[in-house]
Write a structure and sequence with these properties.
- By secondary structure, the protein is an all-alpha fold.
- It folds into two domains: about 120 residues; about 70 residues, Arc Repressor Mutant, subunit A (Orthogonal Bundle).
């Protein structure tokens, strides 16, 4: 049993000190996940890699953690999902702010996420992903890992426990399916 697996099991069993042991083991990988996503953002954005990692970390092992993990791959997939949710929430917040007229929110205690896609498009993608998950969970998970976490096909394949060739086929199918869904085609 790897150290990460042992610590994840301890966290699941309610050991409060286990999260302190896990952070140094996974922090760099979480930073790389966040960095890959943010590297595709437009220059001058306010979000930093560290802020995205910390927000995702709080959701994963904070006072009310998101769930239990069946090993490191499951944990990283959960981290990618947490980052996706953070981006979706930010898109909704930006969309709501658009409707507030010329009011501008200034909050120095919270770092606002930056997405180069317009909030409407991120929300539409989220709805389409939910529909795809109803049809095929693995393909939807692949899209989340590739699009929201910024993983390569090889990395996503490893996390999902499938071959690279299978991941590439799933990626091609999911992209085509999402394209049709977002365009409203049947």
């Amino acid at each position: 049993m790897s150290d990460a697996t042992r610590i994840l099991t301890a966290i699941d069993q309610g050991d409060p000190k286990a999260a302190e042991e896990l952070l140094p083991l996974v922090y760099q990988e979480l930073r790389q996940l966040a960095s890959r996503k943010l590297s595709r953002e437009t220059p001058g954005q306010t979000l930093q890699t560290t802020a995205l990692v910390h927000e995702a970390w709080l959701r994963l092992v904070g006072p009310r953690p998101d769930g239990k993990w069946n090993g490191p791959a499951h944990f990283y997939a959960a981290a990618a999902e947490a980052m996706r949710r953070i981006l979706i929430e930010n898109a909704r917040r930006k969309k709501a702010q658009k409707r507030a007229g010329n009011l501008q929110r200034v909050d120095f205690d919270k770092v606002e996420l930056a997405v180069n896609e317009p909030p409407d498009e991120v929300l539409a993608l989220d709805e389409a992903l939910k529909k795809l998950a109803e049809k095929d969970v693995k393909k939807a998970e692949l899209v989340k890992l590739r699009f929201f976490a910024g993983l390569t096909t090889d990395q996503a394949a490893e996390m999902l426990g499938v071959s690279v060739a299978t991941a590439e086929r799933h990626w091609a199918y999911a992209r085509a399916w999402l394209y049709k869904e977002l365009r409203g085609e049947e």
